[in-house]
Amino acid sequence: MNEFYDSLLEQERESVRDVALKYGRTLNPHYERLLSAKAASTSPYYVGLSSEVVLFPNLV
Asked: Is the separation of the CB atoms in 10 and 18 below 8 Å?
């Protein structure tokens, strides 16, 4: 997250909403891989962050 945030221009950081949307769009292509990592885990514990992919047409 820090690397992503640091890569933004100052004007891109002004809106929390815009930062969140851009970050979500950055992670979306990795959605399948993140889910498969959970399924392939042999550990009895798994820590992950996920959410349903929902697009808001008025925010796009």
From this structure: no
SS3 state at 10: helix
Q: How far is 1 from 26, CA to CA, in rounded Å?
A: 11
Over residues 24-48, the pLDDT tens digits come to 888 777 667 766 766 666 767 666 6
Residue that the structure tokens 């997250």 belong to: 1
| Cβ-contact 59, 17 below 8 angstroms | yes
Residue 13: strand, helix, or coil: helix
Write the DSSP symbol of residue 58.
T
Structure confidence at residue 1 as a pLDDT band (50, 70, 90): confident
Phi-psi region of 23 (alpha: psi -120 to 50; beta: other; left: phi over 0): alpha
